[in-house]
Here is the input.
Amino acid sequence: MDFTKKDWWKRAVIYQIYPKSFQDSDGDGIGDLPGIISRLDYLQKLGVDALWLCPVFASPQADNGYDISDYRAIDPMFGTMEDMRALIREAKARGIGILLDLVLNHTSDRHRWFREALKGRDNPFHDYYIWRDGEPGTPPNGMKATFGGPAWTWVPELGQYYFHQFAPQQPDLNWANPKVRQELYGVIRSWMAEGVAGFRLDVIDQVGKDPDLEVTANGPRLLEFLREMNRETFGGANLVTVGETWGANIERARQYSAPDGSIFSMVFQFEQMVLDQGPSKWEPRPMTLPALKKSIARWQQGLHGCGWNSLFWNNHDLPRIVSRWGDDGACRVQSAQALAVALHGLQGTPYIYQGEELGMTNAAYPLADLRDIESLNAYKDLRARGWSDAEAMAAIHRVGRDNARTPMQWSAGPNAGFTAGTPWMRINPNHTAVNAEAALADPGSVFYTYQKLIALRKTCPVFVEGDFTLLCPEDEQVFAYVRRGGGQALLAAVNLSGRPAAFPLPEEFSGAELLLATQGSPAPGALRPWEALLYCKKE
Ligand code: GLC
Here is the structure.
């Protein structure tokens, strides 16, 4: 990718790496930066333009790096600053940029700022965090932490509570304090000076919170803070910036990703990914394909020309898509390919989460093999609420974050080629069949569908520029849409079911070029189970 071109990220495909689970180089069982460097050729072959690394900064790892104790240091478990510089350099030599994951909403409770803050109310760092006076046992209000328990933790020495949206080990920073904001802007500028291609900003729509009003996302001063951050750091620098915004609606998303570049390049929102979620993430509700299509169509049309979206089925917080909305049994390959085509034909910047390009699946591990603080806490909470062991484990197996975090499956060999030591997390036993070596050797593999989709985005302008019209909105099996723009028209027709589906090719595409077909020559008037087609024609 030519990173000097304006808005280069609109043509880019981003690959997300969970460093702990990508590639170990030193046999300690934990993935690291030299490990990533050793796999750059593989990523270049796939064709991706940038790598988003989940946090690699110094951290006690209460939430696997989303609890940072020093924003300017690499955790020794991942390597050194020199390794990071080598990664940036080696990636750039292959036309690949590096995105760092900045967790600016909270720090670790081991961060120097928090340790100072604990020393007394008059310590200069005390006001870096959010405190309220109170009595033990009576928190300021009933707000709950995302990982279970109250969002307030009592510090007897101070006679105060501090606020944490996530675990108690992740105290929220007080963004209302201008000194905090300036510290963080300094951090961003120092990483810009290292030559990164951009940033992913963790739960960034929470930094304007007002805990007294019980408001976390989209708080009253949020836009002011985000615009200030932009002006003082990456604004005008031609970097890619991705705002993780769980709470964004379309109107908000237009502001966060406004084409004037005043906040971020793009939003990373979750409306589609929670459609099958009930009152909590552990309680499912039925989702229909028409509901999913309707939501995607609203966002496609709602941001066209006035905002920019991220396209993803997976990340480190979500279960594997092929197990979730595909078929991870007999039709694993076909359904992974169908889901890939359905997503990569849309407008926005596509993300591939490590192993998605292999069709990696969920892993139903027993409790003892789980590692995620969220799942471990949820198990206790659900049991305390009267769920049986089997019910709680079924919920965790369905949506737990560890599904995404099992080590990358490079080969059928020992530990899937991930480590020469003992992996920090169990390897999915299906690595003997599902692995990169096997995928690379098979022209019909999921890997090559992703490779083709990435290449098409680079050669056909309609992928980047086209608008969006949904076809057959009520169809329960077929996701089909037409996009027009850049002098082309694109038709995507995807059977997202395991049954044959009727699909008459729209008249105007009868002579069009077949760009991609996942199951050989198309059959007239129908789609095979999990079959996906892309047609393109000049306009
Ligand atoms: C984001 C991250 C998630 C983390 C949380 C707290 O949602 O993606 O992994 O646990 O923020 O930092």
Q: What stands out?
A: The chain has 16 helices and 20 strands. The radius of gyration is 23 Å. The chain has a mean pLDDT of 97.
